[in-house]
Amino acid sequence: MFIRFRQVKAERYGDGERICAGKCKDRPRYCARHGAGMVVKGRTFVEGCPMKPLCPLTHPRIRLEVSILETRREGGKVKQQHVASLGSILIDYTIEDRVYFWAACDERLARLANRIGPDMDRLRQAIAARIPLPTDDDRAKLDAFNWDQLEDRYFWLVERDKREIARAEEKIRKRQERLAKFDEPIVAEIKRLRALGKKYDETEEAQKLSKDFHMFISDDIA
After folding, report:
1. Any idea where the domains of the chain sit in the sequence?
2. Whole-structure pTM value
């Protein structure tokens, strides 16, 4: 058994900037209208490439596929047989890519332990010669980076909530000012109507005043 490394280039599929063919403008698009249960026709594509095949990527993604092969003789000829795939990794890999690759690779090698037998260490060394094993320092750097990302995310959420609270408090203050402004004339009108022996909601003047008041209070305040 031996390890085979093979480079695979993804020229069209994946995220990133593309070498546009210049045919996207005013090209009709069809999309599902959410909630309407129908398909509508628009003038331009909102996102993604409409070409088939897709326009090539400006920077194609190149991955390194790792697999185990076994040689056997058949009919007087030596042939190679695919045993298992151990995963793939980007050519310009990062510490995170190496950690995830080796986690999946060790899991697959463990499942093949009965078939590989004493060649296990030799195969792992062959892979490590091309894709280094992550060290404790590498894992510590990755953990520190992930914690920094998480901390920054929570700081952003806290600042966003503070801004929303400040906006809500400002709206409450303005609405209270409006309420205080309209409270006295409405109370006075209710007392006047009661003094005349009329109910507040039976006169057109009171209903109009109440309607104007509620419309004024319910307006959105920027």
Report:
1. 2-9+43-134, 142-218
2. 0.56
